[in-house]
Amino acid sequence: MSALLCLVAGAVCFYVIVYYGVFRGVGCSSPVKLKGKTAIVTGSNTGIGKATALDLAKRGARVILACRNKEKAEAAAFDIRRESGNNQVVFMQLDLASLKSVRSFAETFLKTEPRLDLLINNAGVMGPGRTEDGFGAAFGVNHLGHFLLTNLLLERLQQCGPSRVVTVAALLHRFGNIDFPLLASKKDLVSGQSTWHDFQAYCCSKLCNVLFTRELANRLEGTSVTCYSLHPGVIYTELCRGLSLWLQLLMMPFAKLFFMNSEGGSQTTLHCALQEGIEPLSGRYFSNCALQQVGAKGRDDALAKKLWEVSERLTRLS
């Protein structure tokens, strides 16, 4: 009996050490209020996007939920308005898998909203399929859609400065690669269709997020707009809905025990959006509410510049 108790006690201690030492993140400590400010959060009908939007609404911001699914987004807007007591939370249609939709969203926003202080590029997908324009889903949604959106809204951000662009990347960017010849021929960064290829494509898209932020900072140097990329932590969200059923079932027990919830996963996003004094760190990468070093490819300025130029052509910005 005593041996069993020791085993249980050991397991509990192991869980506490691993959870609090590895998985549980640090909270955003910024007291900043946002009354009179406007924020866009993509993919904010669920998960860390919704948690981010809720926090911004509680601080008094006008929050635009930029989402694809109208029904889910309007339900999320209702929840956020009720919980925050802030009625300035609205849904605007945005499908990042369609460059036409991105342009339509930007046009509508610029006609109806006089301000933009925060752009949170949060939405992400992991899974098979292609976008409306024929790109691989992860590359098209996670990178190209946000690349175009940011560029179309950049002038408004500059007019309302100081303002910020925050892009949710991932630690998995370290496993990404950018194969430009493959992108030119296949409109994707990986070839093949399998769970492993979907995972690779996601890693590549997250490297694109890091490089996009780096090049954006270089181009915005000397302006009132700063930008940051980040790893939100290990979180089990609807991002995994594209995985096969057996993989989701396999992950679920571990996720319930160790992974952060959506509120925990939003903390580094909020830190990058709100923390005063980090302006000199524009273009850098954060994790656990602190500056972190990115992988070697994520520090390659030539690669970042080339990705930008290719993305301009693919989105018909140039």
From TrEMBL:
It holds the Pfam family adh_short. The keyword Lyase does not apply. It comes from the Eukaryota. Keywords: Oxidoreductase. Belongs to the short-chain dehydrogenases/reductases (SDR) family. PANTHER family: DEHYDROGENASE_REDUCTASE (SDR FAMILY) MEMBER 13A, DUPLICATE 3 (PTHR43157:SF50), PHOSPHATIDYLINOSITOL-GLYCAN BIOSYNTHESIS CLASS F PROTEIN-RELATED (PTHR43157). This is Dehydrogenase/reductase 13. It comes from Seriola lalandi dorsalis.
